[in-house]
Sequence to fold (195 residues):
Amino acid sequence: MLKALTIKDDEKFLRQISKPVDFNDGELKQNIHDIKEFCENYSNCYAMACVQLGIAKRIVCVRSSKEGDTSSNENFLLINPEIISQRGKTEFWEACVSGLDNFALVERPYELTIKYQDEEGNTKIQRFEGFASTVLSHELDHLDGIFHMDRAKKLYIMPQEERAKFRRTHPYKVLSKTCEFHYGELKNKQTENAK
Fold:
């Protein structure tokens, strides 16, 4: 099984913009196998972007889209995802396998409409709401070399074992379901340099 890259040793790689998937790529089946296997076996994540496993391709796998539940394995794959629309606003204290102990309060859209391809290359358009939108927004950022720390309203360094307790008193919040959504300016200038 592949190991997740982290900002400690691999930040430059993680900051790159992932390349679109070519369905004639002979490595694609293996890439899909690798990301699904990681999500099946690593229970401390909601989802994963391929770049976090050292594969700079636009592939995301969702393990769980339910707040507080990383035990289920939805194994939902989005290839070449593209945001069509976003609205509403939520807040959640986000962590990241690749971001180590960085724990950040981030605003995300309440609703996302995404165009993507499935494993067979079929184009689909799907709407995601609530926590699923937060999970996907976090992963889509990875495809563009952006970390949750770059979007942080507040940032703490907090070990994994303390985060679950903290989230019990600071749960996911829906601020609006219908307002226009736009990200503010990125806090981390390294992200801009990566582009």
The first helix runs from residue 7 to 14.
